[in-house]
From TrEMBL, chain A:
This is Sorting nexin-4 isoform X1. It holds the Pfam family PX. Residues 19-146 form the PX domain. The gene is SNX4. Keywords: Protein transport, Transport. InterPro entries: AH/BAR_dom_sf, PX_dom, PX_dom_sf, PX_SNX4, SNX4, SNX4_BAR.
Automatic annotation (TrEMBL), chain B:
The keyword Transport applies. Belongs to the sorting nexin family. SMART domains: PX. This is Sorting nexin-30. It comes from Alligator sinensis (Chinese alligator). It comes from the Eukaryota. Residues 1-15 form the signal peptide. Residues 91-212 form the PX domain.
Length: 409, 439
């Protein structure tokens, strides 16, 4: 799944090796003192020695559970809103074909998740920005007190609750076309990959059926061979090949599950991509609101200064009803407004700057992501094609063997 | 000895091996028996039965006969006959069924098939015939053969009744499947050393107007039918000879296993078709995805096209299985049924004989010689046994060849399917690989 990028310069992966080497089932007590079973994953890290020393440095290892990975990712997501943060492997098995267990404790599922978690760590560690994060580093190296350290960063306070709550409700007047397109793309990518995964699961189901029914030939050929003389041996051994054919599908589909996991990663990446777009949208919204506020204040100020009411307003009504304010009062009001306008202008300036910065860094990361995606998916497709090729070759082999048995009958 | 051999040929060519008393008379009148190419086959085939005829004629006093000589020559000739079957060069009767045509009349709609015969046999006036026959005519032929050759295994016809509404009787596939089965039916008869000389078969192949013959034959053959009547029920067979019991058991298991294979094959086809439905949806999803992408567009389109090619290959595979594999299986299931019927008839003949023997034994115990009708009955049993054994052996041989061919064909079709998919997947690898460098 993972391939280190050619252009990474100072990323963490150059300095340490990271692997998730083991998974272990554990039981413990949760927050409300209830018995629970969970899986812990062993993270191993080892400093990469400079070549001259030639000695292996010791391996550091620590255990983390899935929820801690989740916490890490949430932290990264909030702290780096302009980054397409690598996704975690699925919490529960989705898009499975019927023979595949959906049980979280299923060894195959745990194993696939182990690979997925390792892949996640490697992706973060090779990311030019994310890899420099202190919290990430201590996630890898500091077993105790890590959770407290994360919470101390107060990242949860920074989390913009609007991001989750209202995604489609802001109406941005001047959306950035690039981000709109990207958001549209991530929506479509998500829907097409989930469709693909759904159909693939059904295809796997059917293929499994086709192979397994051939297994019945194995039995009946063997039974039939018992009553035949000259044909007996040929039938018997052909039956054996049918058994081989039937059981070969287990490995084939297990391998294919790896391909499904690669697709799933990009299904979840689509969500990460959308998070960046949404964040941008939100910033744009804030910017526009601030600009709007400033404009209205400027207008008010002008009205007060000139004494004219251009538009019919409540204020105009009250001044007509209760008589004019004293010049002092007006002066004071204008002063307050002018201060607010100044503040607003500063704010707008900084928001503008912030937005421009965001766009710059986010777009750079999106470009990086696109390259990574094209490379990864091409590789995934190649390995998928190679899998299909080896399946075809296996099929040819088995049927050629069976044919030889038949020809001796 | 020579006289006896000629006598045997006469018996067989007359089409009724059991009419022993006509032997002398026929030898004289039919002295110029043609020694056609079927001679060896027929000779070998009937040597078993001739032996008993021979015993009946020349040894009326029941002196024991050295059985080794006819038996050994029989097996030798059987081997000759087998060789003939294998290379097919000595065949002198070739029959094909082709060119189905639909006939729509006011009363009914039916299909006729062209039956073409090419032969060098003297029994045929012309070297070539071409007639049109419908299913009913084949059915008539089979009934006639069963009637006139009760001791022989008659190949099966494809099932007459098809579920209406489920199968379209006039669809191209159905007609083609049936044509193949009818072709097989006639070829099996044409290759049979005894059945191929049957008079009805000859008429079926040559007569311009078969219906006229059918009517005329009715009266003529009713007499013949009498010789075929057996005691049904009443007498229970004391003991079936071991080899026939084994044959029966074999056929039971054989039919059972073929039935299972038939069901498995149908399940596989069903699973394949369901797999095909999913694959047909799977491919286009890649295409849709390709539409979203720039750099990945072409590779994804490639995968989509590749899955499309696999679909076509799969379709061909299940079509082949439906059209070529299943009908042959079914023919053999029916074949084993025919075989079981012949076995049953044999048991009846033996039962008849045993009943007569018992009756005689009860009447007089001191009589040295059993009455001739009981002896005739015994001969009939022996002839039947010999014919049946020879047919079984023949059947076993052709079964072995047919199944070898059938199963190898199945393997071949699967190999071809995988080869097509392999080519498709291999062809997209360069499409996936070349792109990063061009960027």
């Amino acid at each position: 799944m993972f391939r280190s990028e050619d252009n990474m310069e100072d990323c963490l992966l150059k300095k340490i090796e990271i692997s998730v080497s083991e998974a272990e089932k554990r039981t413990g007590r949760n927050a409300v003192n209830m018995q629970e079973t969970y899986t812990a994953y062993l993270i191993e890290t080892r400093a990469v020695e400079s070549q001259t020393e030639g000695q292996c440095s010791p391996v550091d290892s620590l255990w983390r559970r899935y929820s801690e990975f989740e916490l890490l990712r949430n932290y990264l997501l909030v702290t780096f809103p302009h980054i397409v943060v690598p996704p975690l492997p699925e919490k529960r098995a989705e898009f499975v074909w019927h023979k595949l267990s959906a049980d979280n404790m299923d060894p195959d599922f745990v194993e696939r998740r182990r690979i997925g978690l390792e892949n996640f760590l490697l992706r973060v560690a090779s990311h030019p920005i994310l890899c420099q994060d202190k919290i990430f580093y201590s996630f890898l190296t500091q077993e105790g007190g890590w959770k407290e350290m994360v919470n101390e960063t107060g990242f949860q306070l920074k989390a913009d609750s609007r991001l989750k709550a209202l995604s489609a409700t802001f109406r941005v007047k001047n959306p950035d076309k690039r981000f709109t397109e990207l958001k549209h793309y991530s929506d479509e990518l998500q829907s097409v990959i989930s469709h693909l995964l759904r159909v693939r699961a059904r295809v796997a189901d059917r293929l499994y059926g086709v192979y397994k029914v051939h297994g019945n030939y194995g039995r009946v050929f063997s039974e039939w061979s018992a009553i035949e003389k000259e044909m007996g041996d040929g039938l018997q051994s052909a039956g054996h090949h049918m058994d081989v054919y039937s059981s070969s599908i287990d490995d084939i589909l297990e391998e294919e599950e790896h391909y499904a996991d690669q697709l799933k990663e990009y299904l979840f990446y689509a969500e990460a991509l959308r998070a960046v777009c949404r964040k941008h949208e939100l910033m744009q919204y804030d910017l526009e609101m601030a600009a709007q506020d400033l404009t209205s204040k400027k207008q008010q100020c002008e009205e007060l200064a000139t004494g004219t009411v251009r538009t019919f307003s409540l204020k105009g009504m009250t001044s007509k009803l209760f008589g004019q304010e004293t010049p002092e009062q007006r002066e004071a009001k204008i002063k307050v407004l002018e201060e607010q306008i100044h503040e607003g202008e500063e704010q707008l300036k900084s928001k503008n700057l912030e937005g421009r910065d965001f766009v710059k860094t986010a777009w750079a990361d999106i470009e990086r992501f696109k390259e990574q995606k094209n490379r990864d998916l091409k590789e995934a497709l190649i390995s998928y094609a190679v899998m299909q090729i080896s399946m075809c070759k296996k099929g040819i082999q088995v049927w050629t063997n069976a044919k030889e048995c038949f020809s001796k009958m | 000895m020579v006289v006896v051999v000629v006598a045997v040929i006469t018996i067989t060519s007359s089409g009724d091996v059991m009419v022993v008393d006509r032997l002398v008379e026929e030898t004289t009148s039919d002295g110029e028996t043609s020694l056609g190419r079927g001679f060896l086959q027929r000779l070998s085939y009937s040597l078993g039965s001739c032996f008993f005829a021979f015993q009946d004629l020349s040894l009326p006093n029941g002196t024991p006969v050295d059985t080794s000589s006819p038996a050994s020559s029989s097996s030798l000739l059987n081997r000759l006959q087998l060789d003939d079957d294998l290379d097919g060069e000595t065949r002198d009767l070739f029959v094909t069924v082709d060119d189905p045509k639909k006939h729509v009349c006011t009363m009914e709609t039916y299909i006729t098939y062209r039956v073409t015969t090419k032969t060098t046999r003297a029994e045929f006036d012309l070297p070539e015939y071409s007639v049109r026959r419908r299913y009913q005519d084949f059915d008539w032929l089979r009934n006639k053969l069963e009637e006139s050759q009760p001791t022989h295994l008659i190949p099966p016809l494809p099932e007459k009744f098809v579920m209406k509404g489920v199968v379209d009787r006039f669809s191209e596939e159905f007609v083609e499947t049936r044509r193949k089965a009818l072709d097989k039916f006639l070829k099996r008869i044409a290759d049979h050393p005894v059945l191929s000389f049957n008079e009805h078969f000859n008429v079926f192949l040559t007569a311009k107007d078969l219906n006229a013959y059918k009517k005329q034959g009715m009266a003529l053959l009713s007499k013949m039918g009498e010789s075929v009547k057996y005691v049904t029920g009443g007498y229970k067979l004391r003991s079936r000879p071991l080899e026939f019991a084994a044959m029966g058991e074999y056929l039971d298991i054989f039919a059972l296993k073929l039935g299972t294979i038939d069901r498995i094959a149908q399940r596989i086809i069903k699973e394949q078709l369901e797999y095909l439905v999913e694959l047909r949806e799977y491919g286009p999803v890649y295409s849709t995805w390709g539409g979203l992408e720039v750099e990945l567009g072409e590779p994804l389109e490639g995968v989509s096209a590749c899955i499309g090619n696999c679909c076509t290959a799969l379709e061909e595979l299940s079509e082949d299985m439906t059209e070529d594999f299943l009908p042959v299986l079914r023919e053999y299931i029916l074949y084993s049924e025919s075989m079981k019927n012949v076995l049953k008839k044999r048991d009846q003949v033996q039962a008849e004989y045993e009943a007569k023997l018992e009756a005689v034994a009860l009447k007089k115990e001191d009589r040295p010689k059993v009455p001739t009708d009981v002896e005739k009955c015994q001969d009939r049993v022996e002839c039947f046994n010999a014919d049946l054994k020879a047919d079984m052996e023949r059947w076993q041989n052709s079964k072995r060849q047919d199944f070898r061919q059938l199963l190898m064909g199945m393997a071949d079709k699967n190999i071809q399917y995988y080869e097509k998919c392999l080519t498709a997947w291999e062809s997209i690898i360069p499409l996936l690989q070349d792109k990063p460098e061009t960027k």
